[in-house]
Write a structure and sequence with these properties.
Oligomer: heterodimer
Largest sheet of chain B: none
Structural class of chain B: mainly alpha
Order of helices and strands of chain A: HHEEHHHHHHHHHHHHHHHHHHHHH
Strand content of chain A: under 5%
Largest sheet of chain A: 2 strands, antiparallel
Radius of gyration of chain B: 19 Å
Distance between the termini of chain A: 95 Å
Structural class of chain A: mainly alpha
Radius of gyration of chain A: 30 Å
Number of strands of chain A: 2
Shape of chain A: globular
Order of helices and strands of chain B: HHHH
Chain lengths: 624, 126
């Protein structure tokens, strides 16, 4: 079992290097590319498919025989707390690993066509493979330090993939921004790991989860971890990198910035949930962060013109749903939403990629009327949006409902052991109330922006000159296949009492969703040629700029840092360099003064010698 | 005889030599002034040797050394001066400034190219 998990991680890892080094040679061996199936593409897709099968096997074993399975290859002695190179498989890890592999496989297959004409396809595919291996390492690792290794490798891969088209300055800037912002959180994350690991005298997941920390330690450790979680999962106040990360190719947005990497933050909280439960204050902070991110990014998504940015803000919003679920103590509901979100957001991004390929623009105003031209994409994306909004029987309906129900329990049934294992109602009542209300309001906002984007993409008249047609088969079919889990994944929740929809929250959520969808539809229906977001009026600019957070950071952090950097450069130039160069030029000047005496007249020299002798003699006479 | 007399004579001789070395422009006269200084030293050596009644007569022995060295030095010096004269038609010390630092003193006045007279050169060499 553990060996199986290790192979699952190693396959994409080796594929990353194999594809880069041997991919082009394999193309030659096969006698030239067959359609889009070049050597790098085969090396990228085949190991991924095998890994997916392996994770499926792991998940099935875990399903039939639940329990925690761990294995440690070796311990690295560090002088204090040893680092164990090991894996940890339980139900949570198995199911998330399966989701990661499925999405990664879909993205690899999709990319074969999408990136067929890209000159750097092999490095692109290799980075996806490496990224997948890193994500699987995070999911399956049995040691916090090993988890951190995967966490950082993901960050690096994300950087490279966002900046894939680095010829455009804006893309490389977006990559740097993503790297710096997530790194800011990662510092906290690493120190959080140190606090927890040193507190428990072990970095192993089993040891950390079983340890009962003193209150201060667990509070400090979890708050530090939360910084990394906020960075990776793009939660307020470190969310600003995610919308800009849409500069990367669309499959990357689907893989990294929707379905997997950003989910890593939420996954880590779920993984260490027994530790987080010991610190209700941290969960309260998480709840507040989630509430702000949820509603703020939902409103921002309402006003975006770029389809991918709409999806990016909706990702922040949906991740905040998961975080909110965790904050109110509903770990399983949050993970359920993570899975359904992975499915429907990957679907939405890949479908958006199809639309963008056909239309040739990211902008919503350039789209429209694609319903008849792209039936597969249309229906798949409709399922995706439905799942995002939470329309019944699509997957998002069940998972979102489970979170809202949990929040409701946290507000109204405080102190009760609602879900058996994890006691809810631990966070302060007002926080739970804020989270609950925000969840409901955000349902309405989600309905509004999803409806707007859906209508503007597929309905009204065609606005582009491009003759609409379906995207290449490999792309549209991948999307269609992803639509199946996006539609049906929710039914798996029916097996667990905790995830089954409850009547009251369900009706409330549907009511709010209907308000949002209805409002967007009414506005659009008045004049289908115009953008429903026009009704926002003057606040639209604020929404479009995501409440000027970027501008605020620019004023408060970027500019002072730049000014400081300029000051350092000036000091370096005028003080340090000047001192070094000054010593040289001073020596030259003094030397120049002495040069005048070297006039080539030996008699002058001898006079000098004589004068010197006279002076020395005088000194000897006077002082001795 | 009191030691003061030879000491004073030696001092005067030495001073004349120093003056000659510092002030004369003719290289031969500079060389002769060096000889004057050497001989002033010799005089001192001999006088003090006698005055101190040195049993080994170190002063006198040293004087012989000095004389030998002085002879060798003069031979070498005159040969150099001769070659300088053949090359440059001058033995003016002030004019010989090839080793000066660039851009410090003004270029010395170029000596008038005189037709080298073999006899004069030979006389100088002697």
């Amino acid at each position: 079992m553990i060996a199986l998990a290790a192979v699952t991680i190693l396959l994409p890892f080796l594929a990353a290097f194999g594809g880069m080094l041997l991919g082009p040679r394999l193309t030659g061996l096969l006698g030239g590319p067959r359609g889009p199936w070049t050597g790098p593409a085969i090396i990228a897709v085949a190991p991924m498919a095998v890994s997916t099968v392996l994770t499926l096997i792991i998940a099935l074993i875990q399903w039939s025989d639940p329990g925690v399975r761990t294995g440690t290859l070796t311990y690295i002695q560090t002088g204090t707390v040893p680092i164990g190179i090991g894996l940890y498989v339980d139900g949570l890890a198995a199911v998330v690993a399966l989701m990661v592999c499925c999405v990664a496989l879909a993205v690899q297959v999709y990319s074969v066509t999408y990136m067929a004409h890209d000159s750097r396809y092999s490095s692109y595919a290799a980075f996806i493979s490496l990224f997948t291996a890193a994500m699987l390492l995070v999911v399956l690792s049995g040691d916090l330090i090993v988890l951190y290794v995967g966490w950082e490798v993901m960050g690096a891969c994300s950087y490279f993939l966002i900046g894939h088209h680095w010829e455009d300055r804006a893309n490389s800037r977006a990559a740097v921004k993503a790297f710096l912002v997530t790194r800011l959180g990662d510092v906290g994350f690493l120190f959080g790991i140190f606090v927890l690991g040193l507190g428990a005298h072990t970095f192993s997941l089993r040891g950390v989860l079983a340890y009962h920390y003193p209150h201060a330690t667990v509070l400090a450790g979890t708050l530090l971890l939360l910084a990394g979680v906020a960075g990776k999962s793009a939660q307020f106040p470190l969310h600003t990198w995610l919308p800009d990360a849409m500069a990367g190719p669309t499959p990357i947005s689907a893989l990294i910035h929707a379905a997997t990497m950003v989910a890593a933050g939420v996954y880590v909280v779920a993984r260490l949930f027994p530790v987080f439960v010991q610190a209700p204050a941290t969960l309260a902070v998480l709840g507040i962060i989630a509430s702000i991110s949820m509603l703020g990014s939902g409103l921002a998504a309402l006003a975006q013109n770029d389809l991918k940015r709409v999806l990016a803000y909706s990702t922040i919003s949906q991740l905040a749903y998961m975080a909110a679920g965790l904050a109110v103590g509903a770990r399983n509901a949050a993970i359920f939403h993570l899975l359904t979100h992975g499915a429907f957001k990957a679907l939405l991004f890949l479908a958006a990629g199809c639309v963008i390929t056909v239309v040739g623009s990211n902008m919503l105003p350039d789209m429209g009327g694609l319903r008849l031209a792209m039936p597969i994409t249309f229906w798949s994306m409709t399922i995706g949006w439905a799942a995002l909004v939470g329309i019944p029987v699509a997957s998002g309906f069940f998972s979102k409902d489970a979170i809202i129900a949990a929040a409701q329990h946290a507000v109204f049934n405080r102190g009760e052991q609602a879900f058996g294992v994890i006691p809810t109602g631990q966070i302060p009542g007002w926080t739970a109330a804020v989270v609950y209300l925000t969840l409901l309001v955000t349902v309405a906002v989600t309905g509004a922006y999803a409806t707007r984007a859906w209508l503007m993409t597929f309905f009204a008249e065609q606005r582009t000159k491009v003759a609409g047609h379906e995207a290449p088969r490999l792309m549209s079919w991948t999307v269609a296949v992803l639509a199946v889990p996006a539609a049906t994944l929710g039914f798996f929740g029916l097996g667990s009492a905790e995830l089954r929809p409850e009547l009251r929250p369900m009706i409330l959520a549907l009511l709010f969703a209907a308000v949002g969808v209805g409002a967007a539809f009414m506005l659009w229906n008045r004049d289908p040629a115009l953008d429903p977001a026009r009704a926002l009026g003057p606040v639209r600019t604020a929404f479009d700029r995501a409440f000027y957070v970027d501008e605020l950071y620019d004023r408060a952090i970027v500019r002072p840092v730049r000014a400081l950097a300029r000051l350092v450069v000036t000091v370096d130039d005028r003080v340090v360099d000047a001192a070094v160069e000054g010593s040289g030029s001073t020596a030259r000047r003094v030397g120049g003064a002495l040069r005048r005496t070297e006039a080539g007249n030996p008699q002058a020299y001898v006079t000098g010698v004589l004068a010197g002798v006279a002076v020395i003699a005088l000194m000897v006479v006077v002082f001795i | 005889m009191h030691i003061v007399y030879p000491a004073i004579v030696a001092a005067v001789l030495f001073s004349v030599g120093v003056y000659g070395v510092l002030a004369r422009r003719n290289a031969i006269l500079v060389l002769m002034s060096v000889e004057l200084m050497l001989n002033a030293v010799n005089l001192n050596l001999v006088a003090f040797d006698v005055w101190l009644r040195d049993r080994l007569h170190g002063g006198q022995v040293l004087t012989l050394f000095t004389i030998v060295i002085a002879a060798a030095e003069v031979g070498l010096g005159l040969a150099i001066i001769l070659l300088v004269f053949r090359n440059r038609q001058t033995i003016d010390v002030d004019a010989l400034r090839t080793l000066r630092e660039e851009g410090t003193a003004a270029e010395p006045v170029a000596p008038q190219p005189q037709p080298p007279e073999a006899e004069a050169a030979e006389e100088v060499a002697q």
